[in-house]
Amino acid sequence: MYLNSNKYLIFGAGFYGQKALEQYGSQNVDFFIDNDSNKIGTFCNGKEIITPARAAELAKESRYQVIIASLYAESMAAQLDELGVTEYTFFISPIHGMYETEELIVNPYLQTKEAESEKEWSDSQKIRFAREEVNKAVERLHRQQGLFNHIEIETINRCNGICSFCPVNRNDDPREKAVMSVELFKDIIGQLEEMQYSGRLTTFSNNEPLLDDRIIEFNKYAKEHLPKARIHMYTNGTLFTLDKFKELVEVLDELIIDNYNQELQLIKPVKEIVEYCEAHPELELNKKVTVVLRKPQEILTNRGGNAPNRKEFVEYPGDRCLLPYKQMIVRPTGQVSLCCNDALGKWTLGDLTKESILDVWYGTKFTKAREALYKGRQYCGDCRLCDTFSMG
Fold it and tell me: What is the DSSP letter of 166?
């Protein structure tokens, strides 16, 4: 809720902060706030960048409204809470898109250099920053104990990819094949409908969703019954035809196509989709479709110690994890995993063929997992080896 004052402080002096400046008007914004010590005292679009502590003083003295404009909104909100600032709002919703861009093709290696070794990955500034943000966000969410805002429903546990970093690529997958029944899928959607669920939903987890011939119908059903939810999907795009793409993209709020090619060239089905999108600018498909250029041979997170191409594990015993506060991961059998990194289902916290969604989420196993991870990863099995520090 906005105050009567029309003066604002924008928390985040990056891309989204500048977008917020455009929306709220330069004349109504006095300062940017940022945690980067190198930015403090400098100017962004003519506005001085100040520390959160200084912003807290100004907010209390002059009744400023703080606008959080960053994908790290949860941790920023936790920081403001600690500083005694209660009058803030989100420019970027915690239920934001997976890729907040209108670029049709994204090359992530232009922004973040590919790690050439496991040590380089572990020592990266990105990991250090993410660890700090996750720890702050957990502090806030542990007090709230709210509902998840992201649910993944894996309808078939198979993938046709050969990514070296994936513990369930088609060459290494040890799982017994499982396909979700239509009855179970509709029951899960029905429960979410009763809850008036408004978070993220996807019919994907550790798999290739287009291997399930029912996937378009499943997404149509979810869209019909969950009008407030943000429905997205990740796919490697290999099984797309143009007709399938057109039918699916009409239903989704966001479609991310991970185009896997070691030379970062578009594979044939994805190239056809890109050409179609570019040939029809009036459809504005770039606002919901993102093609991400990815390498199948790459060093990424060790996924709780399960990534086949990771051998040198760094332990993070005192670090927390945000995922069990924000995610519910449902396997085709109805079993609920600890998080998206538990691709092999080593940690099963419930079974939706026998329990309700709410009984599992607020049940003993999930509660104990959150309590353990609040104290530190060392208290939750192989989580101490996991170097995934995601905001969910």
Answer: -
**What is the mean pLDDT of the segment spanning 176-184?**
98
pLDDT digits (tens, 9 = 90+) for 232-287: 999 999 999 999 999 999 999 999 999 999 999 999 999 999 999 999 999 999 99
Two tokens, residue 116: 């050439």
Q: Which residues contact 302 (CB under 8 A, 6 or more apart)?
A: 310, 313, 385, 386, 387, 388
Give buried/exposed letters for 167-193 (b at 16+ CB in 10 A, else e): bbbeeebebeebebeeebbebbbeebb
Token pair, residue 228, equals 């407030």
What would the two tokens of residue 264 be?
């970062």
Structure token pair of residue 299: 């060093």
Structure tokens at 146: 């709210």
**Number of neighbouring beta carbons within 10 Å of residue 265:** 10
DSSP 39-100: TTT-EETTEEEE-HHHHHHHHHHH-PEEEE-STTHHHHHHHHHHTT---EEESS-TT--SS-
CA distances in angstroms from 242 to 237, 306, 367, listed in the order given: 11, 35, 44
| Cβ–Cβ under 8 Å, residues 110 and 367 | no
CA angle 12, 4, 89 (to 5 degrees): 30
